[in-house]
Specification:
Family: Belongs to the TMEM20 family.
Number of strands: 4
Keywords: Cell membrane, Endoplasmic reticulum, Membrane, Repeat, Transmembrane, Transmembrane helix
Subunit structure: Interacts with STIM1; stimulated by depletion of intracellular calcium. Interacts with ORAI1. Interacts with the plasma membrane calcium-transporting ATPases ATP2B1 and ATP2B4. Interacts with ATP1A1, ATP2A2, KPNB1 and XPO1.
Shape: globular
Strand content: 5-15%
Function: May play a role in intracellular calcium sensing and homeostasis. May act as a negative regulator of plasma membrane calcium-transporting ATPases preventing calcium efflux from the cell.
Membrane topology: Multi-pass membrane protein
Length: about 425
């Protein structure tokens, strides 16, 4: 069943039917095998395999530059001339080169091809998000004669237009999983209410004070997660909550603690209290939204969550505007452009915040978001010509300390787990 080919190219055949003879080089030994199927009479089904055992002369031959790659490869070639698989060059184990190398070369190349994000890129994204959100609050403060609900409606409208192509591209659908729709509805309802309350607070009280109170939502998120998600609550969470409430009290300065004469307010005290209550309620609403997002986890695409936020927020704003009779487009062209900028900057802020959380841990991102408070005080001084009071600075220090403590606690906890 086999033929022995000597070094001179002669063939010693034990079978009268030889499929092919491969010329050999000096010093080479080739053994030709023929695989025969069960039906020996069917010569068309016979295949010829050859095993090339190279000796030292083969290496010398190759070094002279006369070697042929097709001849140097060990393996098999069938009769019809189809290309053969390359075998293991050292062990003659019959494995392909990819198997012999263990696929290590390809995996190394894949790992090298993977783009590793630059160090600190997530923090840069978080900084950009803080800048855009602070600009949105400043523009809401600068615009005049437009109700906060109408500003929210315009933002929701543009956000909805922006997210539709992305949902079509990622094929997320418009309703979401059946068991998650109630959570998506609550996320949209509570999130849009938090936005409306923040805009209302900015219009009723100093920009920095409204931002500080709204920024206290991480502390309330920890408490609500302990109540509804059964997450662990430590003594530090209680301390951070106490610091946050102290900061809110220092900013609000209620009469039963600070007396009837409260100085340094923007407008009358009644508007200040309304703004404080709206900002506090907005912070709680934002905390509820975060708890719902944790509950949904990764089972719902982010753009689907934004879609519910925009659609439900727009519907809610339209109903409220007709109920309040406050629907009116700004008469000034500048105010109209400001409203469009509020929508675009809000979308940009959400995009950068999402990118930051994709490439960086939540703890460092939350710490970087404290820049919101600093930018609020800077913008208030530069563009609104208003100096902050010592009470506001003290309240901001309490709130920023507590939220930073929550972020550091999460960062340390996640680092220990990894």
């Amino acid at each position: 069943m086999g033929d022995y080919i000597g070094s001179n190219g002669s063939v010693t055949s034990h079978d009268s039917k030889v499929v092919s003879i491969v010329p050999s080089r000096e010093g080479d030994i080739r053994v030709v095998f023929r695989k025969v199927d069960d039906d020996a009479s069917d010569d068309d089904e016979h295949l010829t395999d050859r095993l090339h055992l190279s000796t030292q002369s083969q290496d010398n031959y190759d070094r002279d530059g006369h070697g042929d790659d097709s001849e140097m490869a060990l393996g098999s070639c069938n009769v019809n001339g189809s290309p053969s698989k390359r075998g293991c060059p050292l062990l003659c184990c019959g494995k392909d080169d990819a198997d012999y190398t263990g696929g290590g070369g390809n995996s190394d190349r894949k790992e090298e091809d993977k783009k590793v994000p630059c160090s600190g890129l997530g923090l840069v994204y978080a900084l950009m998000a803080s800048l855009f959100f602070s600009l949105v609050a400043l523009l809401v403060k600068k615009i005049e004669g437009v109700h906060a609900v109408e500003i929210s409606a315009i933002r929701c409208f543009f956000q909805m237009i922006f997210v539709i192509p992305l949902m079509i591209y990622y094929n997320t659908g418009f309703l979401g999983p059946r068991n998650m729709r109630i959570y998506l509805f609550l996320r949209g309802f509570l999130g849009s209410n938090a936005m409306i309350l923040l805009f209302y607070a900015v219009q009723q009280m100093p920009l920095a004070d409204a931002t500080v109170i709204m920024f206290s939502n991480p502390v309330f998120t920890a408490l609500l997660a302990w109540i509804f998600l059964k997450e662990r609550c430590t003594i530090w969470d209680v301390v951070f909550t106490a610091f946050t409430l102290t900061g809110v009290i220092l900013i609000a300065r209620p009469p039963f603690l600070f007396g009837e004469r409260v100085t340094g307010l923007e407008g009358d005290y009644q508007s200040h209290i309304k703004g404080t209550a709206a900002a506090f309620a907005g912070a709680v609403g934002a905390a509820c939204t975060m708890v719902i997002l944790r509950k949904m986890g990764k089972s719902v695409h982010y753009y689907l969550s934004v879609w519910y936020y925009a659609v439900i927020g727009l519907a809610e704003c339209v109903v409220m505007l007709f109920a309040l009779g406050e629907w009116s487009l700004p008469s000034c062209g500048t105010d109209r452009w400001i409203m469009m900028m509020i929508a675009v900057l809000g979308i940009a802020g959400q995009t950068f915040l999402t990118k930051a959380l994709q490439v960086e841990k939540a703890g460092p991102v939350a710490l970087m978001r404290t820049i919101d408070v600093v930018l609020a005080f800077i913008f208030q001084f530069l563009f609104l010509n208003r100096k902050p009071t010592w009470w506001s600075l003290g309240g901001a220090l309490c709130v920023v300390s507590s939220t930073s403590g929550v972020a550091l606690k999460k960062w340390i906890s996640s680092t220990r787990k990894t």
